[in-house]
Write a sequence for this structure.
Protein backbone atom coordinates (compact mmCIF):
# COMPACT_ATOMS: atom_id res chain seq x y z
CA UNK A 1 0.00 0.00 0.00
CA UNK A 2 1.31 3.45 -0.94
CA UNK A 3 2.23 5.57 2.09
CA UNK A 4 0.81 9.09 2.15
CA UNK A 5 3.44 11.82 2.42
CA UNK A 6 1.70 14.39 4.69
CA UNK A 7 4.00 17.23 3.65
CA UNK A 8 3.47 16.63 -0.06
CA UNK A 9 -0.25 16.18 0.55
CA UNK A 10 -0.45 19.56 2.34
CA UNK A 11 1.58 21.24 -0.41
CA UNK A 12 -0.71 19.88 -3.11
CA UNK A 13 -3.82 20.99 -1.21
CA UNK A 14 -2.36 24.50 -1.02
CA UNK A 15 -1.63 24.48 -4.77
CA UNK A 16 -5.25 23.52 -5.45
CA UNK A 17 -6.57 26.19 -3.07
CA UNK A 18 -4.39 28.85 -4.72
CA UNK A 19 -5.64 27.74 -8.14
CA UNK A 20 -9.25 27.86 -6.93
CA UNK A 21 -8.77 31.39 -5.59
CA UNK A 22 -7.46 32.58 -8.96
CA UNK A 23 -10.29 30.88 -10.86
CA UNK A 24 -13.06 32.25 -8.67
CA UNK A 25 -11.55 35.74 -8.65
CA UNK A 26 -11.28 35.67 -12.45
CA UNK A 27 -14.47 33.88 -13.48
CA UNK A 28 -16.79 34.20 -10.49
CA UNK A 29 -18.07 31.40 -8.32
CA UNK A 30 -20.58 30.14 -10.88
CA UNK A 31 -18.09 30.44 -13.74
CA UNK A 32 -15.25 28.60 -12.01
CA UNK A 33 -15.97 24.90 -12.44
CA UNK A 34 -14.03 22.07 -10.85
CA UNK A 35 -12.65 21.37 -14.34
CA UNK A 36 -11.32 24.95 -14.50
CA UNK A 37 -9.72 24.56 -11.08
CA UNK A 38 -8.10 21.30 -12.18
CA UNK A 39 -6.67 22.95 -15.32
CA UNK A 40 -5.36 25.86 -13.26
CA UNK A 41 -3.76 23.46 -10.77
CA UNK A 42 -2.48 21.18 -13.57
CA UNK A 43 -4.15 18.06 -12.18
CA UNK A 44 -6.83 15.66 -13.43
CA UNK A 45 -10.38 15.74 -12.02
CA UNK A 46 -9.84 12.28 -10.59
CA UNK A 47 -6.72 13.49 -8.83
CA UNK A 48 -8.61 16.44 -7.33
CA UNK A 49 -10.90 14.12 -5.40
CA UNK A 50 -7.93 12.72 -3.51
CA UNK A 51 -7.82 16.12 -1.80
CA UNK A 52 -11.35 17.59 -1.88
CA UNK A 53 -14.80 16.05 -2.33
CA UNK A 54 -16.44 19.14 -3.88
CA UNK A 55 -16.05 22.79 -4.78
CA UNK A 56 -17.85 23.66 -1.54
CA UNK A 57 -15.21 21.74 0.41
CA UNK A 58 -12.52 23.76 -1.38
CA UNK A 59 -14.28 26.97 -0.34
CA UNK A 60 -14.56 25.74 3.25
CA UNK A 61 -10.81 25.03 3.28
CA UNK A 62 -10.04 28.48 1.86
CA UNK A 63 -12.11 30.25 4.50
CA UNK A 64 -10.59 28.10 7.26
CA UNK A 65 -7.09 29.06 6.10
CA UNK A 66 -8.05 32.73 6.05
CA UNK A 67 -9.52 32.46 9.54
CA UNK A 68 -6.36 30.80 10.81
CA UNK A 69 -4.26 33.70 9.49
CA UNK A 70 -6.67 36.23 11.01
CA UNK A 71 -6.54 34.47 14.39
CA UNK A 72 -2.75 34.56 14.39
CA UNK A 73 -2.70 38.28 13.54
CA UNK A 74 -5.28 39.10 16.23
CA UNK A 75 -3.25 37.16 18.81
CA UNK A 76 -0.29 39.44 18.00
CA UNK A 77 -2.42 42.61 18.03
CA UNK A 78 -3.88 41.78 21.45
CA UNK A 79 -0.37 41.59 22.91
CA UNK A 80 0.22 45.25 21.99
CA UNK A 81 0.28 47.98 24.64
CA UNK A 82 -1.98 50.13 22.43
CA UNK A 83 -4.95 48.17 21.09
CA UNK A 84 -6.27 50.76 18.63
CA UNK A 85 -2.83 51.68 17.30
CA UNK A 86 -2.09 47.99 16.72
CA UNK A 87 -5.37 47.45 14.84
CA UNK A 88 -5.03 50.46 12.55
CA UNK A 89 -1.38 49.54 12.02
CA UNK A 90 -2.51 46.11 10.85
CA UNK A 91 -5.03 47.67 8.47
CA UNK A 92 -2.33 49.85 6.93
CA UNK A 93 0.34 47.15 6.95
CA UNK A 94 0.43 46.79 3.14
CA UNK A 95 -0.08 50.47 2.35
CA UNK A 96 2.43 51.68 -0.23
CA UNK A 97 3.53 48.14 -1.09
CA UNK A 98 3.17 46.61 -4.53
CA UNK A 99 -0.25 44.87 -4.72
CA UNK A 100 -0.05 41.14 -4.07
CA UNK A 101 -1.91 39.34 -6.90
CA UNK A 102 -2.84 36.45 -4.61
CA UNK A 103 -4.19 38.79 -1.90
CA UNK A 104 -6.14 40.73 -4.54
CA UNK A 105 -7.55 37.46 -5.90
CA UNK A 106 -8.57 36.43 -2.38
CA UNK A 107 -10.42 39.72 -1.85
CA UNK A 108 -12.34 39.28 -5.09
CA UNK A 109 -13.12 35.69 -4.21
CA UNK A 110 -14.56 36.73 -0.84
CA UNK A 111 -16.86 39.18 -2.60
CA UNK A 112 -17.95 36.41 -4.94
CA UNK A 113 -18.70 34.20 -1.94
CA UNK A 114 -20.94 36.87 -0.39
CA UNK A 115 -22.92 37.05 -3.63
CA UNK A 116 -23.10 33.28 -3.95
CA UNK A 117 -24.27 32.93 -0.33
CA UNK A 118 -27.56 34.53 -1.36
CA UNK A 119 -28.43 31.55 -3.56
CA UNK A 120 -26.31 28.65 -2.33
CA UNK A 121 -27.18 27.23 1.09
CA UNK A 122 -23.84 25.43 1.50
CA UNK A 123 -21.84 28.58 0.78
CA UNK A 124 -24.14 30.66 3.01
CA UNK A 125 -23.38 28.24 5.85
CA UNK A 126 -19.62 28.63 5.30
CA UNK A 127 -19.84 32.43 5.12
CA UNK A 128 -21.94 32.68 8.29
CA UNK A 129 -19.66 30.35 10.24
CA UNK A 130 -16.57 32.26 9.14
CA UNK A 131 -18.21 35.61 9.92
CA UNK A 132 -19.22 34.43 13.39
CA UNK A 133 -15.65 33.38 14.16
CA UNK A 134 -14.18 36.66 12.88
CA UNK A 135 -16.76 38.58 14.90
CA UNK A 136 -15.73 36.60 18.00
CA UNK A 137 -12.10 37.62 17.44
CA UNK A 138 -13.15 41.28 17.19
CA UNK A 139 -15.34 41.00 20.31
CA UNK A 140 -12.36 39.64 22.27
CA UNK A 141 -10.19 42.45 20.91
CA UNK A 142 -12.70 45.15 21.87
CA UNK A 143 -13.42 43.76 25.34
CA UNK A 144 -9.70 43.35 26.06
CA UNK A 145 -9.14 46.98 25.03
CA UNK A 146 -12.06 48.12 27.18
CA UNK A 147 -10.63 46.37 30.24
CA UNK A 148 -7.34 48.19 29.68
CA UNK A 149 -9.09 51.53 29.28
CA UNK A 150 -7.98 51.90 25.66
CA UNK A 151 -11.38 51.42 23.96
CA UNK A 152 -14.61 53.25 24.70
CA UNK A 153 -16.26 51.28 27.54
CA UNK A 154 -19.68 52.49 26.39
CA UNK A 155 -19.52 50.49 23.18
CA UNK A 156 -21.54 47.30 22.94
CA UNK A 157 -18.72 44.92 22.00
CA UNK A 158 -20.93 42.61 19.93
CA UNK A 159 -22.55 45.41 17.90
CA UNK A 160 -19.23 47.24 17.52
CA UNK A 161 -17.53 44.06 16.26
CA UNK A 162 -20.25 43.59 13.65
CA UNK A 163 -19.88 47.19 12.50
CA UNK A 164 -16.08 46.91 12.25
CA UNK A 165 -16.35 43.70 10.25
CA UNK A 166 -18.83 45.30 7.85
CA UNK A 167 -16.68 48.41 7.36
CA UNK A 168 -13.49 46.43 6.74
CA UNK A 169 -15.29 44.07 4.37
CA UNK A 170 -16.62 47.12 2.52
CA UNK A 171 -13.07 48.16 1.64
CA UNK A 172 -12.83 45.05 -0.54
CA UNK A 173 -15.46 46.44 -2.90
CA UNK A 174 -13.93 49.91 -3.15
CA UNK A 175 -12.06 49.39 -6.42
CA UNK A 176 -15.08 47.63 -7.92
CA UNK A 177 -17.28 50.63 -7.14
CA UNK A 178 -14.57 53.11 -8.15
CA UNK A 179 -11.62 51.73 -10.18
CA UNK A 180 -9.80 55.06 -9.82
CA UNK A 181 -10.06 55.17 -6.02
CA UNK A 182 -6.87 56.13 -4.19
CA UNK A 183 -6.35 53.03 -2.04
CA UNK A 184 -3.62 54.61 0.09
CA UNK A 185 -5.72 57.60 1.09
CA UNK A 186 -8.79 55.41 1.52
CA UNK A 187 -6.89 53.22 3.97
CA UNK A 188 -5.79 56.31 5.88
CA UNK A 189 -9.43 57.42 6.12
CA UNK A 190 -10.47 53.95 7.28
CA UNK A 191 -7.80 54.06 9.97
CA UNK A 192 -9.06 57.46 11.14
CA UNK A 193 -12.67 56.25 11.14
CA UNK A 194 -11.83 53.20 13.27
CA UNK A 195 -9.64 55.16 15.68
CA UNK A 196 -12.41 57.71 16.29
CA UNK A 197 -15.03 55.00 16.63
CA UNK A 198 -13.11 52.97 19.23
CA UNK A 199 -11.34 55.67 21.23
CA UNK A 200 -12.73 56.50 24.69
CA UNK A 201 -14.54 59.87 24.81
CA UNK A 202 -12.37 62.83 25.75
CA UNK A 203 -13.11 63.97 29.29
CA UNK A 204 -13.78 67.70 29.55
Amino acid sequence: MRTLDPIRHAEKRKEILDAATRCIARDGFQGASTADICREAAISPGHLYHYFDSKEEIIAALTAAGLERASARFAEIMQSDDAIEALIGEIGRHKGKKPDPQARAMSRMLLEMLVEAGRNVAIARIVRKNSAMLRALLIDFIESGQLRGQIDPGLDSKLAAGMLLSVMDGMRSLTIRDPDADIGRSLEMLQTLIARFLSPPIKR
Remarks:
- The chain has a mean pLDDT of 83.
- The chain has one domain: 54-198.
- The two ends are 75 Å apart (CA to CA).
- DSSP finds ten helices and no strands in the chain.
